Amino acid sequence: MFTPQVQAVQQQLGSRAAYARFAAADTAGDDRLTDAERNFIAARDSFYIATVSETGWPYVQHRGGPAGFLRAINDRTIGFADFRGNRQYVTVGNLVGDDRVALFLVDYPNRRRLKLLGRARAIAVDSDADLLEPLRDGYHAEAERGLIITIEAFDWNCPQHITPRYTERELETALAPFRAKLRALEAENRTLRAKIEHPSS
Question: For the whole model, what pTM was predicted?
Answer without folding.
Answer: 0.78
